[in-house]
């Protein structure tokens, strides 16, 4: 009789466990419900989300449509444009070169690169990575292309003739020239192209065979188009929002691949995060701390994007705060990757719609896990 009762109690216990959803499952369901609401409200065709806790993927889901024209559903293999998230590959590459003894983060860039204007000479590697260099921008903010409109070589000649915007360290100015020089630095000591260096020293190590560099019009298996509700109004000379979904075509110059031009998936970026945090990409923990440390301006303040991203490290926007500090990098207004170092949490959200405040979605989702 006692044996029978024990078996009955064990059965009931197992039944209760089976019927009671785990906290993790409930949290994941709440995250997906939140994202589905945002997709409906903002008109986002497709989303990938990955959540990593304590170096384990606890949520990996695909929502909506990756290709609207052909009604193709988003899947683990879908590649999304991640734009400026390429900067974290570049920043990590610089840390790798520093660990190898090729450079010091405080070195003037003129110690390593030749042919630069004299007034660029004292700008440091750290100031390039943190966008505090004061260098003129090789990109034209009005046209979204390179200055001069005559290609890479012409723009490189032209930018070196332009005056500095401010004394190095005085201000924060997010511009592509900084990462053009970072790419030159990586290619010099890596003795290969930037893309090859990243593939060999990061993507291959993390197990990311499908993450690539290129342009939006490149034909790649399972690559999602990028969409937007904004169109350029010739009469107004600016972008205006409409209610019609449009495909966006972007070209990322090869000399600026350290700045933007990467395509990946949430699944592969989750692998990159885990490789970074497990010490597979950087051997010295101090390199990671240095990369995420907010950089002060000459007056003691911090350069920032605004909102909760109130500081900037080396390639990483920083949420400098007492409770749940984070680093959250943004790509093209459609992709974001956030790491909460003190909480053992990381979140990746990729979408195929430009104009989404994805970094805010990342921080909102973090609250489901940090309650």
Radius of gyration from the alpha-carbon trace, in angstroms: 23 Å
Assign an overall shape: globular
Strand elements, count = 15
Number of H- or I-type helical stretches: 10
- Whole-number mean pLDDT: 92
Question: How many strands, what sense, and barrel or not for the largest sheet?
Answer: 8 strands, antiparallel
Residue fraction in strands: 15-25%
Determine the structural class based on helices, strands and strand pairing: alpha+beta
Low-confidence stretches are 8-20
SSE pattern: HHEEEEHHEEHHHEEEEHHEEEEEH
Q: Strand order, biggest sheet?
A: 3-2-1-15-14-13-12-11
Distance between the termini: 45 Å
Portion of residues in helices?
25-40%
Structure commentary:
The chain is α+β, with helices and mostly antiparallel strands and 371 residues long. It is built from 10 helices and 15 strands. The chain has helices at residues 2-19, 23-42, 86-99, 125-129, 152-159, 176-190, 194-206, 266-277, 285-292, 358-369; strands at 46-53, 56-67, 72-73, 80-83, 139-140, 145-146, 212-213, 226-233, 238-248, 262-264, 311-312, 317-319, 326-331, 335-340, 345-351. The strands form 4 sheets. The chain has an 8-stranded antiparallel beta sheet, with helices on both faces. Helix 2 runs antiparallel to helix 10 (358-369), helix 3 packs across helix 6 and helix 7 (194-206) crosses helix 8. The chain is globular and about 60 Å long. It starts with a helix and ends with a helix. The model is unreliable at 8-20 (pLDDT under 50).
């Amino acid at each position: 009789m006692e044996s029978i009762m024990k078996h009955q109690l064990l059965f009931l216990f197992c039944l209760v466990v089976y019927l009671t959803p785990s906290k993790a499952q409930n949290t994941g369901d709440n995250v997906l419900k939140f994202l589905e609401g945002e997709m409906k409200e903002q008109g986002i065709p497709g989303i990938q989300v990955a959540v990593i806790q304590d170096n384990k993927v606890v949520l990996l889901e695909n929502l909506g449509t990756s290709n609207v024209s052909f009604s193709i559903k988003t899947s683990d293999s879908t590649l999304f444009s991640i734009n400026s998230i390429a900067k974290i590959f570049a920043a990590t590459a610089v840390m790798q070169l520093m660990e190898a003894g090729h450079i010091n983060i405080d070195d003037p860039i003129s110690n390593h690169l030749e042919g630069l204007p004299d007034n660029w000479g004292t700008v440091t590697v750290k100031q390039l990575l943190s966008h505090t260099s004061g260098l003129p921008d090789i990109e034209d903010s009005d046209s979204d292309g390179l200055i001069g409109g005559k290609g890479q070589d012409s723009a490189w000649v032209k930018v070196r003739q332009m005056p500095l915007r401010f004394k190095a360290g005085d201000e924060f100015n997010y511009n592509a020239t900084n990462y053009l020089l970072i790419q030159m630095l990586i290619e010099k000591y890596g003795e290969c192209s930037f893309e090859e260096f990243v593939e060999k020293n990061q993507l291959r190590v993390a197990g990311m065979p499908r993450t690539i560099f290129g342009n939006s019009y490149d034909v790649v298996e399972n690559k999602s188009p990028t969409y937007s509700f904004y169109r350029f109004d010739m009469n107004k000379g600016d972008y205006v929002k409409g209610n019609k979904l449009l495909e966006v075509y972007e070209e990322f110059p090869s000399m600026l691949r350290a700045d933007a031009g990467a395509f990946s998936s949430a699944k592969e970026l989750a692998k990159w995060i885990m490789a970074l945090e497990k010490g597979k990409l950087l051997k010295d923990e101090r390199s990671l701390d240095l990369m995420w440390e907010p950089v002060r301006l000459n007056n003691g303040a911090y350069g920032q994007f605004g909102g909760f991203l109130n500081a900037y490290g080396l390639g990483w926007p920083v949420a400098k705060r007492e409770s749940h500090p984070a680093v959250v990098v943004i790509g093209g207004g459609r992709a974001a990757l956030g790491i909460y170092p003190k909480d053992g949490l990381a979140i990746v959200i990729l979408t195929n719609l430009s104009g989404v405040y994805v970094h805010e979605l990342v921080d909102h989702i973090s609250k489901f896990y940090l309650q």
